[in-house]
Amino acid sequence: MDEHEAVRHVRKFWGLHTKARRLATEKDDTFALEDEAGATFVLKVSNPSEDENEIDFEVSLLQHVAADGSVPVPALLPSWDGETLVTFVDEAAQLRRARIMNLAPGIPLDSTGSNPAEREKVGEVLARLRGATASFSHPAEHRLLVWDVRHLSALHPLLDEVPTLWQRDLLEEGLSRFEGIKGRLEGLRSHVLHNDFSKSNIFVEHGHPDFVRSIIDFGDAVHTAIAVDVSTALLNQLPRNTRDDAGGDIFGAGRDLLRGYLRYADLTDEELSLIPHLVMSRVVSRALITIHRAALFPSNSTYILRNTEQGWNQLKWFLARSEEEVSQTLMQNV
């Protein structure tokens, strides 16, 4: 869908006269909108292959978190008919589902730096978000999601698509490590969680007392383990330039986030021992998924692979340590 078509749908269903600018996304058509008065919004048009119940799950969860009020999230803009999710047939004769949200204040965390106190505030918000989603349920919450790292073993066939031998060997060793801890995941506490607490989904404002101004994108939300949700957040605090010699503390920034998190939510010793392994597993899954998807959609490969390259040295850091040493990484000095 191009910008001109998006503008026509916005005018028809929401009565807004806007201009649109496409935003880079993995699979949806997403646009930044600005109306004649200068108000800004985001239009998200789901991929035609997305399941209707799963889209309803995401929208309902966003509304639930907004009503809870403990975490700032975008507000949905009702259409002319009072609907927050509008269904229509696009110009390519595809059934599409769209919603408009107000543009989150601040800037994405991945476009700026942060100090330890600010990272602690990020952790506090993740903990409060866990509390807000704990009371939510939906028929689609147990959907099978490729980005839920509990299902990493199912990605093993994608190894054949990794073109470089040394990268394939690293990923195979990482998959083997995951098999060693997979059985322990079944006993972990779980409920509906955001599952994509990446820097691009955290909008911040330096100097603001809360620092975190909004949490966006509930597209990977799912009923999963609390430890999985935390590991995803810590993955996104790993340094982009991990040293080749596997030295240093890869969780330096992540410990700041974890300190803030533990002010508002608890983690058991079992969860703390598994989280570093789950971070490593997410590095493996990210590489397998993105290499596969970049081959399928080469025109969007730059966006798809934007975080893949940094993962090789991150993976080396984990594999240079024994499983027991990795388990102890977050047990002390949090």
Plain-language structure description:
The chain is α+β, with helices and mostly antiparallel strands and 334 residues long. It has helices at 3-14, 52-68, 116-133, 165-181, 226-235, 252-264, 269-296, 301-304, 311-319, 323-327; strands at residues 18-23, 29-35, 40-45, 86-89, 95-102, 107-108, 190-193, 202-204, 212-215, 222-225. The protein has ten helices and ten strands. The protein is globular, with a radius of gyration of 20 Å. The model has no long low-confidence stretch (mean pLDDT 94).
Mean pLDDT: 94
Radius of gyration, taken over Cα atoms and rounded to an integer in Å: 20 Å
Fraction of residues in H or I helices = 25-40%
Biggest pleated sheet: 5 strands, antiparallel
In short:
The protein has helices at residues 3-14, 52-68, 116-133, 165-181, 226-235, 252-264, 269-296, 301-304, 311-319, 323-327, and strands at 18-23, 29-35, 40-45, 86-89, 95-102, 107-108, 190-193, 202-204, 212-215, 222-225.
Notable characteristics:
334 residues, 40% helix
Write the layout of secondary structure elements.
Blueprint: H1 3-14, E1 18-23, E2 29-35, E3 40-45, H2 52-68, E4 86-89, E5 95-102, E6 107-108, H3 116-133, H4 165-181, E7 190-193, E8 202-204, E9 212-215, E10 222-225, H5 226-235, H6 252-264, H7 269-296, H8 301-304, H9 311-319, H10 323-327
Helix pairs in contact: 3-6, 4-7, 4-9, 5-6, 5-7, 7-9
